[in-house]
Every structure is written in C-alpha cells, then in structure tokens.
C-alpha cells in the first residue's frame, strides 16, 4: 500500500473529536513558543521554569502519540489536557509573585490589559486549550467500525428462536 493511501484511510476513520484534539496539540505548541519567547529575556527570566516547558512538551507528545492508534485515540485528549493543566499549575506557581504585585490593590480591567504579554497570552491560550480539551474528551475520536450483516438465515443465541 502506498503511504498516501494509508494516510487517507487513517484520516477517514477520524471524527470531529480527533480534530479538536489536534487543535489542542497545536495550541499547546503555540503556548510553548509564546512562553519561551516571552520569558527568556533576562528581565523576565526569574519567572520562567523548566517544568512549565516539560509539561507542555509532554502534552504535545502524548496527545500526538496517543492519537495515532485506534485503540489509544480515546485517551489522547485527556492526556494532552492533563499535561497542559499541569503546565498551567507550574506556570501559576512560578508566576504568582508577579500576580501578587500587579493585583495588590485589586483586580480591574485596566490592570489586566497592562499585564505583560507573556502572562496575558499564555493565560488566554491555556483557557482555550482547556475548553477545547474538555470538549474533545466527550467526542469520539474515531468512527465506530460497522459490522457486516450476515446474509441468509438468522441464528439465535443458545436456547432462543430466530
């Protein structure tokens, strides 16, 4: 079989849930790039931690790896979303001091809009990832296999009539 035929059959067996999982994986990659770009400058380096990057990479790898097989595909959105949630927890753990400084006098829309772009964009991406991840967990990842109906006489189970 050609590679194109294999890929065509693979994507024919996928449903809307699979594409939501792909969106979660791609948004996780975008979030990872934003996080690295925003927190590598020296002035923001103290708010960056390797565990945020680790869990984001694990979300991307686990979601992509589990999505490949029909048997593991139902677990892909849960694994990717869980790893991104752990990444978010580490993000908040190592950035709480920034939030305590900026929101010391209270939370307002003007203060939210003045936040450093790394925090604002990352939080919005995390929120979008969680929403799409939860939706994809409740959607089937692959189409159900249909069983061919037998032609001819119907056979009953043990002791039953056909």
Kindly list the characteristics that best describe this protein.
mainly alpha; 162 residues
How would you describe this structure to a colleague?
The chain is built from six helices and no strands. The chain has one domain. Helix content is 65%, strand content 0%. The chain is mainly alpha-helical. The longest helix is centred in the middle third of the chain and has 27 residues, at 76-102.
| End-to-end C-alpha gap | 42 Å
Shape: elongated
SSE string, helices as H and strands as E: HHHHHH
Uncertain residue segments: none
User: Which percent range describes the beta-strand content?
Assistant: under 5%
Please tally the helical runs, counting DSSP H or I stretches of 4 or more residues. 6
Domain unit count: 1
User: Whole-number average pLDDT?
Assistant: 83
Give the C-alpha Rg: 22 Å
For the secondary structure, the number of strands is 0
Question: Considering DSSP H and I runs of 4 or more, what fraction of the residues is helical?
Answer: 55-70%
Characterize the biggest β-sheet: none
The computed structural class is: mainly alpha
SSE topology:
Elements: H1 3-12, H2 16-39, H3 50-68, H4 76-102, H5 109-113, H6 117-137
Brief overview:
With 162 residues, the chain is mostly helical. The protein is 65% helix and 0% strand.
């Amino acid at each position: 079989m050609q590679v194109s035929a294999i890929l065509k059959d693979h994507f024919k067996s996928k449903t809307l849930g699979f594409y939501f999982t792909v969106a979660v994986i791609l948004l996780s990659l975008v979030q990872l790039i934003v996080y690295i770009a925003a927190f590598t400058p020296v002035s923001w380096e103290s708010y960056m931690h390797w565990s945020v990057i680790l869990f984001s990479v694990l979300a991307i790898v686990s979601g992509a790896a589990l999505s490949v097989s029909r048997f593991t595909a139902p677990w892909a959105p849960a694994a990717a979303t869980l790893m991104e949630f752990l990444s978010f927890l580490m993000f908040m753990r190592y950035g709480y001091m920034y939030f305590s400084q900026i929101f010391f006098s209270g939370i307002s829309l003007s203060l939210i809009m003045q936040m450093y772009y790394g925090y604002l964009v990352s939080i919005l991406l995390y929120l979008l990832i969680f929403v799409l991840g939860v939706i994809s967990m409740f959607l089937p990842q692959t189409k159900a296999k249909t069983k061919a109906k037998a032609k001819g006489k119907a056979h009953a189970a043990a002791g039953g009539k056909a």
